[in-house]
TrEMBL record:
It comes from the Bacteria. The keyword Nucleotidyltransferase does not apply. This is phosphoribosylglycinamide formyltransferase 1. Its EC number is 2.1.2.2. InterPro entries: Formyl_transf_N (IPR002376), Formyl_transf_N_sf (IPR036477). Signal peptide: none annotated. It comes from Paracidovorax wautersii. Pfam families: Formyl_trans_N (PF00551). It is an enzyme of class 2 (transferase). One of its GO terms (cellular component) is cytosol. Residues 122-250 form the Formyl transferase N-terminal domain. GO terms for biological process: 'de novo' IMP biosynthetic process. Pathway: Purine metabolism; IMP biosynthesis via de novo pathway; N(2)-formyl-N(1)-(5-phospho-D-ribosyl)glycinamide from N(1)-(5-phospho-D-ribosyl)glycinamide (10-formyl THF route): step 1/1. SUPFAM superfamilies: Formyltransferase.
Amino acid sequence: MPKAKLVYILSLRNAAADKAGQHVDYRGATRYMKSPLEYLAEALDSTPLGDEYTLEGIVYDDDPASPRDQAALADYGFAWAPGRPWIFPPELKAQGRRLRDLLHPVPSTYRTLPLDAPERPAAKRAYEEALEDKLLALQADVVVLDGLLVILDALVRPGARFERRIVNIHPGITRTESPYRRRGAHATLDALYGARGLQVADWSSLRTEPAPQVEKTGASLHYVDTGIDSGEVIFDVLGTDIDPADTILELRWNNFHRSLFPALHQGLALLAPHVRRGAA
């Protein structure tokens, strides 16, 4: 049975915010911040996931012309260079191929335009068209999003070529009915506030108000639709206890290891029969 060709999409700036590939402060000591991408690369070489998938490419959407992206990647840069941090070990391989040789830029340049700019919708469509062209060139059967802060539209709407072929690994439970639900870009911080008996009423000012205390969080692998973390859940794990004294990076480390890596692994294992090459 042919393996499914997997393409991974991320934003370098989100990985940089996590201090991916670096040692971070953890309760008076340090721990290595392994990214989901690094975890997947290792799993493809050491677990049965490698019998189901081949990693064909790693796409990132960061824009070298954007001052905001430049600032977010001031320590890392837009590509690996000797003597500076990078989001995974520079010689890391998956299935015999070096990860940094699999990187492909498809910058989401439309993000530099104001939200109400009349040209923004066309620029957003152009980005999705460029992304689709790259996925087709890589012959992607399945696409994993990780920290891509872009809401997709044309690529995933009903009848689109990549409908139910793009999945997202999210650091929170996304099921509507769950009392632990955390969607959106601030899922980890939202969970940390929840463990302190607060909820954020205004994300621009971080104004909080009292809320019932929720002391657990998790992670979800779900299909991507045109909403915000609203697609059908493939697999989720509610495995992370939150200490209200956690820092954001301490909680990220815990949630990656206790919930997100297992959700990614088990979710891809469940997905494999549906996305193998030639599958309906």
